Amino acid sequence: MYTSAGTLDQTNEKVNEYLPLVRRLAYHLKNKLANSVELDDLIQAGLIGLLDAIAKFEDGKNAQFPTYATQRIKGAMLDELRSLDWAPRSLRANQRKIQKATSQAQHALGRSASEMEISTVMGISLEAYQKMLFESSGAQIVLYDDHGRGDDENSEIDNVGDEESDPIKILGRKKFHQLLVQAIEDLPEREKILMSLYYEQDLNFREISAILGVVESRVSQMHTQAILRLRVAFEGELTN
Domains of the chain by range and CATH? Predict the structure, then answer.
């Protein structure tokens, strides 16, 4: 099936070479999800994505194989999560409530709202709000799904390396990148530091908790809050 990438030996060689990448991406993703999601399921899905990348990658399309493979692996893992229906309706509903309250609070205040201010808008205690944040961890998957992939077969993942021939796609990607940079810059300082440590320095929540001097569950809450702030920023911009 995967002979287009070379011989079976070459394919096996490539799989062995990139298996650590699959595992690293699976661990990174698992940290963002509920305990009910099995790490082995993510790894198996990632391996399918890797094999797909090996089969479909074409040299000379302005894309490096590691970049292409990473996107295929992530895409396969997200497809697996969809098939497992990993996020129950209650979790999605809570995400929408938090996002709506965040938007309302920030619009009224003209700045980033504190968790206390958002919880006040929702009419619940700060403790109840932070519990909801913790239970809603995984919202970042929706963010990635909304802006990093399409639902059709011609998603951005399928078109890696073709952007030079599509000025509209180049412009869209640049606009999204600029919006993301500005949205992160507007985050409260500790959330901004958290995002930098997690996404740029690739630290896990345990390591970040030690740096910020808070418990690991608090890091999870702050991360979810930051992601939902970014969603508010994106939706506000895209509806203008």
Answer: 1-86 (1.10.1740.10), 88-240 (1.20.140)
